[in-house]
Write a structure and sequence with these properties.
Number of strands of chain B: 9
Largest sheet of chain C: 5 strands, mixed
Largest sheet of chain B: 4 strands, mixed
Helix content of chain C: 25-40%
CATH topology of chain C: Beta Polymerase, domain 2
Number of strands of chain C: 7
Radius of gyration of chain B: 22 Å
Helix content of chain B: 40-55%
Strand order of the largest sheet of chain B: 2-1-8-9
CATH architecture of chain C: 2-Layer Sandwich
CATH class of chain C: Alpha Beta
Order of helices and strands of chain B: HEEHHHHHEEHHHHHHEEEHHHEEH
Number of domains of chain B: 2
Distance between the termini of chain B: 39 Å
Radius of gyration of chain C: 17 Å
Oligomer: heterotrimer
Shape of chain B: globular
Chain lengths: 144, 405, 156
């Protein structure tokens, strides 16, 4: 790995910028993601910062299944992110479509539309599981 | 330059030509909203159809996930309809446990709402405090049911898990803590001038309009309309509960906040009653796999207002028809009415005050500027920032408020 | 006489074609059937004279050669009057009731989108709940409709 890559990797590890995108399903996972940022769980102490725009995000935290109406927007947001970028599927619906698999407006998990780097199951994924998943992803990046 | 920017509606990076799910489209003249069109269905999954293709038991778990805040609401509303068609005599202990979980759900939902409302008006401290308190309820729900959300407590014929005697102490202790915190929030809400200024006179809905437009839940009750299914059309164990239906006559967002806060106190009362008077006996009766032909309408007072399920059975193990009317849909016309001829800056909190689906305030908004003759699509977060800035310039600044406890 | 009995009596007294068409299923639950040509009069009467001030929702059902429609009315005292009527599937025209209840708009749009019922008199507005690019003549809640039709159409 080149020196510049190592520095960028280190700063990304120490302070990953995260964009939270919800496809709009039941929202339980979205609430748990926000709860992970509140004092009891405090995801921010890992340096995780929530960013509003795709262009500044390293990690895309996705919740909910891919529906017909959201697919294009999801793909566009992914395309707006600069490389290297990572997608985390939060919750069982994001992993596989979950309980909505087979519903006429649901296509499946996030990976039916964009590549996924990490899968955090749970219905919903608890704040602890979300933190565990994000930290595991960061550690796997460190290993590279 | 900075002054100029603040007066302009911010335009996001999206382009109108591309397919983007928009939740509202507004017609704007100057800073005022002239007309509102809702564009719902961004989270339409096809659940009613899926219900016909699955068994009743599978449907209990499916409808539970219609909404991640009101999961017990939909699950209970559904099983009630099926139980009525099948003529099942659900044991009293099960009805009490359903009521207990129902009120715990209302508590988590109202505390969540408080935090979200705080976030919409630029008062993030409130989000941190209320969601910290909310964790007390989440712990209780996880202890009782095994999950923080989507409790899976219902089955057709009763409930799946019992309350243990040792759980009750923890529940009562939690109620004491939350009651104290809620009384503090009521004090802050009714005495802090910044909050009163920000929420009063916003989102006006007069009583006669609330009735005419079919408003439900705290939205209706804050306009003096005493609609509450727990009292009007009792289900579960509510006929045996002693509680007040909270109404308010402010007719605005402030009233909606006060109603929810006072309802929390009523919920703590009912939670204490349901564990204190918990009847002995079984927690479920056996339900047939095939439900005899018939139909039923079930109603439930969700934290947001009346939820209604209609179920038609045809003698098989799958329903013929399941119709769900969630409370937010009933409040759509009221929201449109509340926004018309009002400032754009009021939109985020007025929408949030009906307590819509969480993701409703994460979608895009399309704004047609009637003077400039152009339409822009903006992010809700930009609309929120605009709103907070607009009010700051008028002296409503939460960073200047006293410290919260 | 219970409140429910009184309502049933008033309905059958006022409209003799309702003679054996009103059922009290249990406390606070009345169900009745009426043909579409008589529906409007009964609906109007229920609202203006029997204090049914709330339209909870409208349920549309695919019943083979016709669409069943249930108007779920409620009074402030918690009693529901569920009025069932029907329209032929080969000519599924329905008049809006938004003149009585503005909230009916969303419920009627839902039936238009998901069942293909032609609701007359709706104010201008967006469809609900299907997305704008949903293919025409595809009505998911009709019996026998399968979603694989969509995938074929999209050339996936």
């Amino acid at each position: 790995m080149k020196v510049i890559d190592k520095i960028v990797n280190w700063s990304r590890l120490k302070s990953p910028w995260v964009l939270h995108f919800n496809t709009g399903a039941c929202n339980a996972c979205d609430i748990e993601i926000v709860a992970a940022l509140t004092p009891r769980y405090d995801l921010e102490r890992f340096g995780v910062l929530l960013k509003a725009t795709p262009r500044h995000a390293d990690i895309l935290l996705c919740s909910g299944p891919v529906t017909r109406q959201i697919e294009d927007r999801l793909i566009r947001i992914y395309e707006q992110m600069a490389e290297p970028k990572f997608v985390v599927a939060v919750g069982t619906c994001a992993c596989s479509g979950g309980v909505f698999d087979g519903c006429y407006n649901v296509k499946g998990g996030i990976d039916t539309a964009i590549p996924v780097s990490a899968y955090i199951p749970g219905c919903p994924a608890s704040p602890k599981a979300i933190m565990d998943g994000v930290v595991k992803l960061l550690q796997s990046l460190e290993a590279k | 330059m900075a002054e100029e920017k603040e007066f302009r509606i911010p335009i996001g990076p999206q382009h109108p030509a591309l397919k983007e799910p928009v939740s509202f489209s507004l017609a704007l003249r100057g800073e005022k909203i002239m007309g509102v069109d809702v564009r719902l269905g961004y989270n339409h999954r096809g659940i009613e159809k899926a219900c016909e293709e699955r068994t009743y038991i599978q449907d209990v778990y499916l409808v539970e996930r219609i909404c991640g805040i009101c999961s017990h609401t939909h699950s209970t509303c559904f099983v009630q309809a099926v139980e009525e068609i099948a003529g099942l005599d659900v044991p009293k202990r099960a009805l009490y446990i359903r009521t207990l979980v129902a009120e715990l759900e209302r508590v988590h939902s109202h505390l969540l709402w408080l935090g979200v409302a705080g976030h919409e008006i630029g008062f993030d401290t409130l989000l941190m405090f209320t969601w910290r308190d909310r964790e007390v309820v989440m712990d209780i729900l996880a202890m009782l049911t095994g999950n923080r959300v989507n409790y899976g407590i219902n089955t057709i014929g009763g409930v799946r898990r019992d309350i243990r005697a040792e759980d009750i102490k923890g529940i009562l202790k939690a109620m004491d803590i939350l009651e104290e915190r809620t009384k503090y929030y009521i004090e802050v809400a009714t005495q802090e001038t910044t909050i009163i200024q920000r929420l009063s006179g916003v989102g006006i809905l007069l009583k006669e309009d609330a009735i005419k437009l079919g408003a439900v839940g705290p939205t209706a009750r804050a306009s003096g309309v005493a609609r509450d299914i727990r009292r009007d059309d009792p289900y579960a164990a509510y006929a045996e509960m002693d509680f007040n239906v909270i109404t308010d006559d402010h007719n605005d967002v402030f009233g909606r906040a006060v109603v929810r806060l006072k309802e929390l106190l009523e919920s703590y009362k009912m939670i204490r009653q349901s564990v204190g008077n918990l009847p002995e006996g079984p927690i479920a009766v056996k339900a047939p796999r095939k439900i005899p032909a018939g139909e039923a309408v079930s109603r439930y007072e969700a934290p947001r207002g009346e939820d209604m399920h209609y179920v038609k059975a045809n003698g098989t193990d799958r329903p013929e028809r399941v119709k769900v009317r969630a409370p937010t849909l009933a409040n759509v016309q009221a929201v449109r009415h509340m926004l018309r001829d009002r400032y754009l800056a009021d939109m985020p909190i007025v929408v949030a005050a009906i307590d819509p689906c969480f993701s409703c305030t994460d979608r895009l908004v399309s704004i047609r500027d009637m003077d400039k003759g152009r339409t822009d699509i903006i992010e809700w977060s930009d609309l929120r920032d605009y709103s907070i800035g607009w009010y700051k310039r008028r002296g409503v600044d939460f960073s200047k408020m006293g410290k919260m406890k | 006489m219970s409140e429910e009995d009184k309502i049933k009596q008033q309905l059958t007294d006022r409209f003799n074609f309702l003679a054996d068409k009103v059922t009290i299923k249990r406390a606070r639950r009345l169900f009745m059937e009426v043909s579409m040509d008589k529906f409007r009069d009964v609906f109007d009467h229920a609202i203006k004279s029997l204090n049914f001030s709330m339209l909870t929702t409208i349920t549309g059902l695919d019943e083979g050669d016709k669409f069943g429609l249930i108007y779920h009315l409620a009074s402030e005292s918690g009693i529901m009057l569920n009025i069932k009527t029907s329209i032929p599937k080969d000519d599924p025209i329905l008049q809006t009731v938004t003149g009585y209840f503005p909230s009916a708009e969303m419920y009627e749009r839902e039936m238009a989108d998901l069942l293909g019922i032609n609701v007359k008199g709706l104010p201008a507005g967006n469809r609900y709940p299907l997305p704008d690019d949903w293919p025409a003549d595809q009505y998911p809640l009709r019996k026998g409709w399968k979603s694989d039709v969509l995938d074929k159409k999209e050339n996936r």
